Each structure stands twice: as structure tokens, then as C-alpha cells.
Amino acid sequence: MEAAATHLRTRTYLTLLLAAAGVGIALALATLGFLGAYQGLHDVVWEWLPDKLGIDPHPWYALVVTTLGGLAVGLLLVVVPGGGGPGPADGHGLGVEGAPPIDAVGMVVVSLVSLTAGASLGPEAALISIAIAVGTLLASRVRKPELGRVFGMSGVGSVHSGLFGSPLAPAVMTLEV
């Protein structure tokens, strides 16, 4: 007797494939939105505001902005839902079962403030958090919470493909997870 296998033409597989593609598209749009918001905030803080104030943004202005940004991030980590999301020691949440979408909101806010204030980090952590939260949300919407990890990792793959410009980067990262 042949063991039951998931064939590529089954309804279940095609549904899963469609859902994973939906997560990828949603996360690609979220990535564009996040990067656009960051660029806009960066331009306001580092170009528009110093220009309007008629000051040089490099000597003391940079010290003021980074200090205020650090204080704002510290305060936000205490007050936003989820405490700003999982940290680097936790793999930024990669491979977790699921994350409440409200935690992603906190991570996005903290990341936008941190990046705008001059942190030399990238948007990856916030985008990973969003991907995992969207995957969890989609899995709960289709009443299959066990698929939260699959959908979340599909979103993480989409985010990293867009950021690194290649589908190879997420494949390597997934193998590491």
C-alpha cells in the first residue's frame, strides 16, 4: 500500500501555495511601505528640518538627534506592545510558531524611530516581525494555526528576496533556521 503523499495537483497543496504567494505579495508591499516611510522620515529629520532651521546638520545637530532618538527608543521599548519585538539573540523571531500582529506594530514604530535617529542598522528586524505576524494572522484567518510558521517563513523569504535582490539569500537563511 502506498503511503499518503501531498501531490502537486491536490487542492490542499494549491491552496497552500496560493496562501504563501499572498503572504509574499502582502509582505513585498509592506516592505515598500516601510522603506518609503523610513526614507520620508529620514529626509525630514536630516535634510528638511536643518534646512528650515538654517543649521549645519553635522556637528551638534547629529548629537542632539541621536540622543533624543535613543531616549525615544528606550521609552518606546517600555510602552509599545510586544516590547519592540524579539531581539537579535532570539533570531528576530525566525522560526517561531506565531506572533500577535500588535507586536509587529510595536516593532515597526521602534524601528522607524531608531533608524531615523541614526542607528546603523537595517530594516530587517522590523520586516521579519511583520512577516511572522502576517503569517500568523493569515493562518488564523484560514483556521489553520499550524500553518503560521509556513506562512511566516514565506513572508520572511519575500522580505529578504526584496532586500537582498536575490531568492538565494532567504533560501540560505531558512536552512540556517
In short:
Helices cover 69% and strands 0% of the residues. It has 6 helices and no strands.
State mean pLDDT (0 to 100 scale).
78
Largest sheet: none
Extended strand count: 0
Structural class, from helix and strand content? mainly alpha
The helix fraction, in percent, is 55-70%
Percentage of β-strand residues:
under 5%
Number of helices: 6
Using only C-alpha atoms, the radius of gyration works out to 19 Å
String of helices and strands: HHHHHH
Q: State the low-pLDDT regions, or none.
A: none
Identify the overall geometry. elongated
Q: Cα distance, first to last residue?
A: 35 Å
Main attributes of the structure:
single chain; mainly alpha; 69% helix
Question: How would you describe what is shown here?
Answer:
With 177 residues, the protein is an all-alpha fold. It contains 6 helices and no strands. The relative contact order is 0.14.
Topology:
Blueprint: H1 11-53, H2 60-79, H3 101-116, H4 124-141, H5 148-164, H6 168-176
Helix pairs in contact: 1-3, 1-4, 1-5, 2-3, 3-4, 4-5, 5-6
